[in-house]
């Protein structure tokens, strides 16, 4: 049985659903604002190199559930020579914003946004996982219940999954980090498969050739 939590604060709305396995999923709603923090670049010589700033209306969610960083603050974001910068979205998780103001909610890994491996990183949408590139272009749509980083052009993805605590395990093949389940948890999925960087399934013998 799913449990639904709703948080409303003015024009802000975020919901959390939790299933019987303990997996918590966050949903956002159209035409709402999300509170976030970002790293502000150095504006004066005597200022710190970067200062973390919190803004109540930092991200706008439009009708299509696309996220946009508030334009007045975009010029102040510290990109540190990169094409993207990290955001902390309150009640949701970590995100990246690019220089066009596009925002993508990222899969949380190691207490931060997912790393880019083979040029791709995992993002989340409606409880599913997909992959974006460093310009935040969606390369593989969010459709997986579990997904591992790409390695040599191949990723292991899962369907119909649940999270299992791995606090007492020394090691596990499917180990990933998560605050909800202590330091680590792992995915148990009814179906696993391998995909290439186009999202197409890869056969076992094709995967072996890439390693």
Question: What is the ordering of alpha helices and beta strands?
Answer: EEEEEEHEEEEEEEEEEEEEH
Query: N- to C-terminal separation?
Result: 42 Å
Query: Which percent range describes the beta-strand content?
Result: over 45%
Helix content: under 10%
Q: What is the number of helices?
A: 2
Mean pLDDT: 79
Largest sheet: 6 strands, antiparallel, barrel
List the uncertain runs: 1-12, 177-183
Rg over CA atoms, rounded to whole Å, is 18 Å
Task: Name the strands of the widest sheet in spatial order.
Answer: 4-5-6-9-8-7
What's the β-strand tally?
A: 19
Structural class: mainly beta
What general form does the structure show? globular
Structural description of this entry:
- The chain is mostly beta strands and 211 residues long.
- It has a domain at 1-105.
- Helix content is 5%, strand content 54%.
- The protein has two helices and 19 strands.
- Strands 4-5-6-9-8-7 form a six-stranded antiparallel beta barrel.
- Strand 12 (121-125) and strand 13 (128-132) form a beta hairpin.
- It starts with a strand and ends with a helix.
């Amino acid at each position: 049985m799913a449990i639904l939590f709703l948080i409303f604060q003015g024009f802000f709305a975020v919901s959390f659903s939790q299933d019987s396995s303990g997996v918590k999923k966050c949903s956002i709603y159209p035409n709402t604002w999300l509170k976030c923090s970002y790293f502000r670049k150095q504006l004066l010589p005597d200022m710190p190199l970067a200062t973390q700033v919190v803004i109540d209306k930092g991200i706008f969610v439009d009708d299509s559930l696309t996220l946009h960083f508030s334009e007045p603050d975009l010029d102040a974001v510290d990109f540190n020579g990169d094409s993207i910068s990290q955001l902390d979205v309150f009640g949701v998780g970590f995100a990246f914003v690019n220089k066009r103001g596009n925002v993508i909610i990222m899969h949380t890994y190691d207490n931060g946004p997912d790393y880019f491996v083979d040029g791709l990183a995992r993002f989340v949408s409606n409880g599913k996982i997909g992959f974006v590139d460093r310009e935040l272009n969606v390369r593989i749509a969010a459709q997986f219940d579990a997904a591992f980083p790409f390695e040599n052009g191949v990723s292991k993805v899962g369907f119909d999954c649940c999270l299992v605590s791995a606090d007492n395990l020394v090691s596990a093949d499917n180990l990933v980090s998560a605050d909800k389940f202590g330091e680590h948890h792992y995915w148990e999925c009814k179906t696993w498969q391998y995909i290439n960087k186009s999202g197409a399934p890869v056969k076992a013998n094709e995967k072996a050739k890439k390693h």
